[in-house]
Amino acid sequence: MVGSRQYGGFTLTVLIAVAMLLRHWNTTAVYSIFCFGYERRISVTTLIDGAVTVSSSIFFVHRFGAIGAPLGSIVGVSLVSLPSNLFALCRETEVPLSRVILPSGHGSGDFPLSVSVPSSSRERGRRRIRLNWQWRPSAWLELTRL
């Protein structure tokens, strides 16, 4: 039965979301460089990323518990896949890395980032999580403030 006993906490949830966003960004870069004929590079990078992710996840899970699994995924994608794939994309498109990472300007603040912070409100004996505030970043670098 799914319930509050299976909830890993806010930190685990945030780390899983960060790992997912980084993996999605990497997937976008992979599809882009695939179009330039980097199949072999993608395969080797993915294998190395997998080895780093598994080994760092095992290490972090033994060290920190459940939050170690998304930490291992973040380490793998941040140290192996994203740098390799983004540099290949920059080389092929002849665009500097800063231009690939930073937003184009228009539309970068159009999506709201809503952060739910657990609160201690109780309604009829049930704990509720409320939306406490909403933040609209005006640039991608503002996302690092989290």
Quick structural summary:
By secondary structure, the chain is α+β, with helices and mostly antiparallel strands. The protein has helices spanning 10-34, 39-64, 68-93, 97-101; strands spanning 113-123, 126-135.
Essential attributes:
146 residues; alpha+beta; 4 helices; elongated
Regions with pLDDT < 50 over 5+ consecutive residues? 107-122, 128-132
**Gap between N and C termini:** 32 Å
Q: Which strand order does the major sheet show?
A: 1-2
Work out the number of β strands: 2
- Supply the helix-strand structural class: alpha+beta
Helix content: 55-70%
Q: List the helices and strands in order.
A: HHHHEE
Domain count: the total is: 2
Tell me what the structure shows.
This protein is 56% helix and 14% strand. By secondary structure, the protein is an alpha+beta fold. The chain has two domains: 88 residues, no CATH class; 33 residues, no CATH class. A two-stranded antiparallel ribbon has the order 1-2. About 14% of the residues have low confidence.
Summarize the topology.
Layout: H1 10-34, H2 39-64, H3 68-93, H4 97-101, E1 113-123, E2 126-135
Antiparallel strand pairs: 1-2
